[in-house]
Structures are given as C-alpha cells and as structure tokens.
Amino acid sequence: MADVNRGNRPLSPHLSIYRPQLTSVSSIFARITGVALLGAAVLVVWWFLAAASGPEYFAFVNGLMTSWFGDLVMFAALWAVCYHFLSGLRHLYWDTGRGFELKQAERLGWMVIFGSVILAVLGALVL
After folding, report:
1. Residues 109, 22: contact at Cβ < 8 Å?
2. Which residue in 42, 66, 83, 88 has the most C-beta neighbors within 10 A?
3. Burial of 84 (0-12, 13-18, 19+ CB in 10 A)
C-alpha cells in the first residue's frame, strides 16, 4: 500500500546547504582517480599498439605521448595511481575499525593528499 504521509516527511539537506568534508571530498577524488586511471591505461595501450603497427604511426603517437602535454597527462596519471593507492590503504585501515575519530580521519585525509603528491614527485624524479 502506498505511503500516505509521503508529503509530510522532511527533505534531506540539499547540496547548496551541505558543507563538504575532507573525508567525503577525498572519497570522491578516489573514485575520480580510478576512472582517470582507466583513461591513462587506454593511452598506454594505444602507445603499445602504435609500436606494433609500424614506425610511422608509432612516431606520431610517440610524439604525442612524449610532448609536454603527454608528459603532463602521464604525471597526472602517476599522481592518480599514488592517490588511489594511498586512499585504498586508508580504507583498509578503516576496515580494521580504527581511524574513525574526526581528528584522525581528517589527518588521514591530509596524509593521503600530501603523501600522493610527494610519492608522485619522487616517482617522476626516479622514472
């Protein structure tokens, strides 16, 4: 039977009055980086397929991938790997039932953000 009191229920908070928190924003970024990594993987596969296709096509694709824009995209993908990895470690820590206190959850969020930048810069310098 249909709920007759449906119109009398309070509405949930709308996005215009909701203040995003670091944990929610970092969760959204973890999802975004996961999708972005799929796009970066497609670019790397395209690069490999171009290498198998022939020298002319590989020169074209290699020129794109090693240009300043390609380097920027690949560095962003490296940062996304680092962020996604550290965010996953944070979730594994949360799965143990620890780290849910407000200050500790916020500290973990900042550690993921700064740690991913540091790891990406170190990885780019090493690679």
Report:
1. yes
2. 83
3. buried
